[in-house]
Specification:
Blueprint: H1 7-14, E1 23-27, H2 32-40, H3 45-54, E2 56-58, E3 64-72, E4 79-88, E5 91-96, H4 102-114, E6 142-149, E7 156-169, E8 183-189, E9 192-195, H5 200-204, H6 221-231
Length: 232
């Protein structure tokens, strides 16, 4: 039988729900060959580190799933399922395009660099005999993070993406109809993500990977209080 609840019992819960419109995207340090290539296209390190993340108006928090195998025989008449591989889904980021088109250049030339392994052979891309060869992954895979927070800035949730690169760009529509903001979107592939902070300082403070610093097993109750007073 369900218990009888008063509105005052659950009102504090439903008046403190997280909102979708407060988040921040930022790209980490890209490999030197890729940075040099983007610099030639007019996309500097400052734009990558600061501006392009601010121009991202829509993102998706990552999801994951397990590939499984079914086994029969351990128990008569029972089919068991075991996880053997963790799989990470792609994420899609949507950006406003600035008047200098650096947003498009950032995505377009990042993808162009990935397939530019033959550029040093002196064959122009306009020639019919030009062929594509992929760069080494270490030269084009970077990192990024999405920070989800609330408007009071009291709580946040951080996702860090490792070995990330653009996998596909969506077509960009232009039209003579009434003007609207130009946008560009791309899906990104990555090897894995880490839920929570990952910096060495956060590890030292025991607040990496969504750890609660007050639950640090290396500190006693008094030590945890002192630990909290030092860093917070």
């Amino acid at each position: 039988m369900p218990s009888i609840r008063r509105i005052s019992d659950f009102k504090p819960l439903f008046t403190n729900l997280a909102q979708t419109s407060h988040f921040q995207v930022s790209f980490g340090q890209l490999p030197p060959p890729l940075r040099k290539y983007l610099e030639k296209k007019g996309v500097g390190a400052r734009f990558i580190a600061e501006d392009v993340g601010l121009l991202c108006y829509s993102a998706s928090l990552p999801t994951t799933q397990f590939a499984t195998a079914e086994i029969t025989g351990n128990f008569m008449g029972v089919k068991e399922r075991f996880a053997h591989t963790r799989m990470f889904d792609q994420i899609t980021l949507e950006f406003y395009v600035d008047k200098n088109y650096k947003t498009i250049k950032f995505l377009e030339h990042w993808m162009e660099f990935i397939s530019s392994g033959n550029d040093n052979k002196g064959v122009s891309k306009t020639k019919l005999n030009y062929s594509y060869r992929m760069q080494y992954p270490d030269d084009y895979k970077g990192s990024a993070k999405i920070i989800k927070f609330e408007r009071d800035y009291q709580n946040e949730l951080e996702y860090n993406f490792l070995n990330l690169f653009p996998l596909a760009m969506s077509s960009i529509a232009v039209s003579y109809n009434s003007s609207d903001k130009l946008t560009a979107s791309a899906s990104f592939s990555y090897e894995r993500y880490v839920a929570g902070r990952i910096s060495s300082l956060d590890t030292q403070k025991y607040q990496d990977n969504n750890n609660d610093p007050t639950k640090n097993p290396n500190n006693s109750i008094d030590g945890a209080k002192n630990f909290k007073s030092i860093y917070f």
